[in-house]
Design a protein that fits this description.
Elements (H helix, E strand, L loop, with lengths): L1 H14 L13 H14 L4
Length: 46
C-alpha cells in the first residue's frame, strides 16, 4: 500500500516539474485512502 502511495507521490512530483525545493507536493488523505483501498482490493496498482 505504501509503495502505491509513494509511487503516486513521485508521479505528482514529476508532473509538477520537480519543484520540491520551492513548494510542497502532497496527496490528500482521501486520495491516500483510495490508493490503499485499491491496492487491498485489486492487488498491485500501477
Amino acid at each position: 500500500m505504501m509503495a502505491s502511495i509513494y509511487r503516486t507521490l513521485l508521479r505528482e512530483i514529476a508532473a509538477d516539474g520537480y519543484q520540491v525545493l520551492h513548494q510542497r507536493v502532497s496527496l490528500t488523505p482521501l486520495r491516500k485512502f483510495w490508493l490503499a483501498w485499491k491496492t487491498q482490493a485489486f492487488g498491485r496498482v500501477v
